């Protein structure tokens, strides 16, 4: 007997939805926002852990994820997962799951930008290249938003680099003074 597949709807930020489509688009469904997380065991296990038969967890902040997140992604689950774990995700768990994927998307994007920045590319050019590579058009993830978030993230990296350079300077000057 053929394994039936079920879909659950997950509300996410537009760039999180695009990340899911880029990486986990379901080959069986040519049209629409359908993803299959079986390609990534870690994400698939997280999804299974937050599935429930009836929404049990409730947090007032996430009462209506539709108002916060504009993109609907349909996630394919197997009949076994449907019967064993459930068919619903609480709004709180949906937001937490979205944050996990958001961290991954930002990590990949910022790593890509860092590589181009390290070879001398300007920040704006690196962001435009990254947007093109990951299909993040201006409606999905605006370049200005990426630049602001990237700059905020890099403040800690710059602090670390400054500390590292000052330590290297102390070592270098210390070695020279002994000579």
What's the helix and strand layout?
Layout: E1 5-12, H1 14-24, E2 34-35, H2 41-50, E3 51-52, H3 65-68, E4 71-78, H4 79-84, E5 88-89, H5 91-118, H6 123-133, H7 143-178
Parallel strand pairs: 2-4
Antiparallel strand pairs: 1-4, 3-5
Can you offer a commentary on this structure?
With 179 residues, the protein is α+β, with helices and mostly antiparallel strands. 59% of the residues lie in helices and 12% in strands. It is built from 7 helices and 5 strands, in the order βαβαβαβαβααα. The strands form 2 sheets. The protein has a 3-stranded mixed beta sheet. Strands 3-5 form a two-stranded antiparallel ribbon. The termini are far apart.
List the defining traits of the structure above.
single chain, 179 residues, alpha+beta, three-stranded mixed beta sheet, two-stranded antiparallel ribbon, 59% helix, 12% strand
What's the multimeric state? single chain
Provide mean pLDDT, rounded. Answer: 77
How many beta-strand runs? 5
Structural class: alpha+beta
Which sequence of SSEs, written as H and E, runs from N to C? EHEHEHEHEHHH
The main sheet orders its strands as 1-4-2
| Count, helices | 7
Distance from N terminus to C terminus (CA atoms, Å) equals 80 Å
């Amino acid at each position: 007997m053929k394994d039936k597949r079920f879909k659950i709807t997950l509300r996410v930020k537009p760039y999180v939805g695009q990340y899911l489509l880029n990486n986990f688009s379901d080959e069986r469904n040519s049209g629409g926002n359908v993803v299959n997380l079986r390609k990534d065991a870690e994400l698939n296990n997280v999804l299974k852990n937050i599935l429930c038969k009836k929404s049990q967890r409730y947090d007032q902040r996430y009462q209506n994820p539709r108002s916060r997140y504009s993109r609907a992604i349909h996630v394919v689950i197997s009949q076994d997962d449907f019967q064993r774990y459930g068919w619903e995700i609480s709004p709180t768990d949906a937001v937490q799951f979205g944050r996990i994927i958001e961290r991954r998307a930002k990590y990949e994007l910022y790593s890509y930008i860092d590589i181009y920045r390290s070879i001398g590319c300007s920040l704006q050019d690196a962001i435009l290249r990254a947007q093109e590579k990951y299909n993040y058009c201006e409606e999905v993830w605006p370049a200005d938003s990426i630049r602001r978030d990237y700059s905020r993230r890099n403040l800690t990296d710059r602090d670390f680099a400054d500390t590292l350079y000052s330590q290297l300077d102390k070592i270098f000057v210390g070695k020279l003074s002994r000579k």
